[in-house]
């Protein structure tokens, strides 16, 4: 019998919600319970395209807004063969940000509509579960100052949050809202439970295509 496929699990949320910490804890917990799991993150700054994105985020270079949007999307597409291979091998992938960040961050800029922003990512592997770590701007501010990178201002983050809320209305995506104001351990427990359910369901389902 062919091995059962892994699940594609995505964590989304505004900056400071705790996505990276929770991705790492989830992968560790899955591995400890004997389930093959690996973490990925977008943008993946290690590729040639990722390095262009990284320089842009660090404000070392300026790129036209449509151009950078397409680069973020290309950065996801270039990893698709690897994503599919891992899932087919039975490895569950836990991904820190995906196309939803792509759409939320660009559509928060003036002159961009959700529809145009979604187009380049149509057809990407569809996550079996997307958990949105919900944290109010006030609570995010309590977690300390934003860094120096582009997009790290509270005004912009509020606009991004609104765009995520619009995206979460799409019933074709399996969204779960997670209260990220709880303790790290409580958030982890919630995420772990949701993920185990998704892994069990994904085993018997074909991988879908996003926004198709
Ligand atoms: P991180 O490495 O998770 O801190 O993300 C870097 C920053 O890039 C963060 O502010 C969110 C933003 N970002 C992530 N993905 C995309 C994307 O696809 N498009 C745009 N415009 N911004 C993104």
UniProtKB/TrEMBL annotation:
GO terms for biological process: central nervous system neuron development; DNA repair; dTDP biosynthetic process; dTTP biosynthetic process; dUDP biosynthetic process. It is an enzyme of class 2 (transferase). Keywords: ATP-binding, Kinase, Nucleotide biosynthesis, Nucleotide-binding, Transferase. Residues 11-191 form the Thymidylate kinase-like domain. GO terms for molecular function: ATP binding; dTMP kinase activity; nucleoside diphosphate kinase activity. GO terms for cellular component: cytosol; mitochondrion; nucleus. It catalyses: dTMP + ATP = dTDP + ADP. CDD domains: TMPK (cd01672). Its EC number is 2.7.4.9. Pathway: Pyrimidine metabolism; dTTP biosynthesis. Pfam families: Thymidylate_kin (PF02223). NCBIfam families: DTMP_kinase. Catalyzes the phosphorylation of thymidine monophosphate (dTMP) to thymidine diphosphate (dTDP), the immediate precursor for the DNA building block dTTP, with ATP as the preferred phosphoryl donor in the presence of Mg(2+). Belongs to the thymidylate kinase family. This is Thymidylate kinase. It comes from Sander lucioperca (Pike-perch). The gene is dtymk.
């Amino acid at each position: 019998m062919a091995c059962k496929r892994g699940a594609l699990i995505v964590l989304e949320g505004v900056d400071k919600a705790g996505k990276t910490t929770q991705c790492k804890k989830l992968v560790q917990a899955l591995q400890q319970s004997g389930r093959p799991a690996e973490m990925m993150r977008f943008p993946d700054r290690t590729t040639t395209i990722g390095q262009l994105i990284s320089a842009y985020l660090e404000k070392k270079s300026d790129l036209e807004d449509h151009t950078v949007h397409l680069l973020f999307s290309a950065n996801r597409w270039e990893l698709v063969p690897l994503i599919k291979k891992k899932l087919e091998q039975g490895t569950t992938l836990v991904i820190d940000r995906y196309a939803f960040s792509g759409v939320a961050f660009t559509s928060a800029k003036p002159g961009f509509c959700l529809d145009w922003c979604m187009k380049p990512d149509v057809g990407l592997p569809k996550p079996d579960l997307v958990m949105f770590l919900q944290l109010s701007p006030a609570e995010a501010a309590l977690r300390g100052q934003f860094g120096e990178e582009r997009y790290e201002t509270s005004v912009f983050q509020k606009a991004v949050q609104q765009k995520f809320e619009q995206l979460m209305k799409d019933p074709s995506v399996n969204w779960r809202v997670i209260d990220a104001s709880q303790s790290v351990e409580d958030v982890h427990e919630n995420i772990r439970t949701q993920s185990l359910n998704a892994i069990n369901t994904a085993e018997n389902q074909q991988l879908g295509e996003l926004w198709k």
